[in-house]
Amino acid sequence: MVEFPENFMAKLNERQENNVFRKLPVSNKLVDFSSNDYLGFAKNEAIFISVSQYLVDKGIMANGATVSRLLIGNSELYNELEDYLANFFRSDSALVFNSGYDANIGFLLALTELRLDLNCYLVVDEAHAIGVFGENSRGPLVEWNVENQSFARIVTFGKALGCRGATILGSKDLTDYLVNFARSFIYTTAMPPHAQATALIAITQLSQSEVEQLGLRANITFFKSKLNELGISDHFVPSNSAVHCCSVKGNDQVKEWALTL
């Protein structure tokens, strides 16, 4: 095996010395206070069954998309998903990416010229807002009826929707531009049909029921009340969202608390 470069090993050793060395944790069956599965969709049995039935009904038996969407990786399922997303989020157009990271990096690299212009463009990443805020969980921009004032909205599926992928919402011209210039869209294999179907069923579930969102709001209220009751609310950053951050100073103390918990 080729010897690992000394300068790379030095950087790893430095991370260990500073207590910031990353390791892949082993999953457990403890109560989940760390994931982004706000509505429980990631382990929702009804969604899982609906996705399987949807693929069978459509006669889709493929495990992968085989190639990028610009070749032969596009599908009617992709079109159905993007049409549903555009309608649900009140956008002219929607373009699906393989992940939230791909959507962000693809958008920013494709439109670097925006920062050279004197005009201002509003780009909103609603990753942690969808499924949490707004009517039918469509996020604050739709709730405030200002969705058309943004140049682009980025919505990830890996948070409240509990699945894989992301979409960039905007004008049809923006979609056309990204299809032509977003490298993370152009040079990657399309999502497998199962991932596309899961996103479609999850967003459909989100649009048709507010039961999960109401349950989430109740949990947030309960959690905050317990922080006050225990007298530890000062250790947490004030928040009405599903994300509640406990402020702990220093890497050593953070790791000590993590091991204790």
What does this structure look like?
With 261 residues, this protein is an alpha+beta fold. The chain has a domain at 41-208: Type I PLP-dependent aspartate aminotransferase-like (Major domain) (Aspartate Aminotransferase, domain 2, 3-Layer(aba) Sandwich), CATH 3.40.640.10. 45% of the residues lie in helices and 7% in strands. The protein has eleven helices and four strands; from the N terminus they run ααααβαβαββααααα. A four-stranded mixed beta sheet has the order 1-4-3-2, with helices on both faces. Helix 6 (140-143) links the parallel strand 2 (123-125) and strand 3 (152-156). Helix 2 (45-57) packs across helix 9 (193-208). It comes from Arenibacter certesii. Its cofactor is pyridoxal 5'-phosphate.
Quick recap:
Pfam families: Aminotran_1_2 (PF00155). Belongs to the class-II pyridoxal-phosphate-dependent aminotransferase family. BioF subfamily. The protein has 261 residues and is α+β, with helices and mostly antiparallel strands.
Please give the CATH class of the domain at 41-208.
Answer: Alpha Beta
**What is the beta-strand fraction?**
5-15%
What name does the CATH topology of the domain at 41-208 carry?
Answer: Aspartate Aminotransferase, domain 2
Helix content: 40-55%
